[in-house]
Amino acid sequence: MTSLTKQNFSAASEDAINIQINHELQAAQVYLSLSAWAGHVNQALPGLEKFFRESAVEERGHAQKLIEYQNRRGGKVVLQTLQAPDSEWTSARNAIESTLQLEKDVNKGLLNLQKIAEENNDPQLCDFIETGYLEEQNESIKKLADLVNQLNRVGGDGLGLYLWDQNLLNQKTDNK
Ligand SMILES: [Fe+2]
């Protein structure tokens, strides 16, 4: 598709951005489901519920930023169907560990997008991904890994889990 703003912007990059938008929206979908799970009476983990809810907002923000970027470059945003996320996790530890894998998958998508931008000699897209996404993605993975380790330290159940969750509840929000 032609557009007035398109310059040095390959079809491969355009497609890869759309794929990444989908990864980010899928991640938001999974976080929403996790948040609902954590807030269910059987779990009653308000800290984890809040943490996952904020993560969903964050992922949606990542998708929105890519949508705006795609439009700036003259590409066309094409959204795809999202998959139904899981709705059952066996424990807080299981839930948080599953997001660690999710974020690693999102990171793989970003690295792939970066590679396509490089192969197509698009320094502007490379810079956008590097400064806007890769570092932040790394921080999220570190944060999740910290949470897993902290939960393991307190035992993952009983009073330890309660305190861990309260700590999450009282943490300041830093939505990006
Ligand atoms: Fe993201």
Overview of this protein structure:
- The protein has 176 residues and is an all-alpha fold.
- The chain has helices at residues 11-39, 46-72, 92-119, 123-154, 158-170.
- The protein has a single domain (12-170), classed as Ferritin, core subunit, four-helix bundle (Ferritin), CATH 1.20.1260.
- The protein is built from 5 helices and no strands.
- The radius of gyration is 18 Å and the shape is elongated.
Radius of gyration: 18 Å
Report the major sheet.
Answer: none
* CATH classification class: Mainly Alpha
- Please give the CATH architecture: Up-down Bundle
- On the 0-100 scale, what is the average pLDDT? 94
The number of helical elements comes to 5
Number of strands: 0
Structural class by secondary-structure content: mainly alpha
Percent of residues in beta strands? under 5%
Indicate the CATH topology. Ferritin
Look at the structure and name the CATH superfamily: Ferritin, core subunit, four-helix bundle
Bulk shape: elongated
Spell the H/E element sequence. Answer: HHHHH
Q: What number of domains?
A: 1
Measured distance between first and last alpha carbons: 32 Å
Binned, the helix content reads: over 70%
- pLDDT < 50 stretches: none
Oligomeric state? single chain
Unique ligands:
fe (ii) ion
In short:
Helix content is 73%, strand content 0%. With 176 residues, it is mostly helical. One of its GO terms (cellular component) is cytoplasm.
How would you summarize the topology of this molecule?
Layout: H1 11-39, H2 46-72, H3 92-119, H4 123-154, H5 158-170
Helix pairs in contact: 1-2, 1-3, 2-5, 3-4, 4-5
Bound molecules: fe (ii) ion.
Fe (ii) ion (FE2) binds next to helix 1 and helix 2.
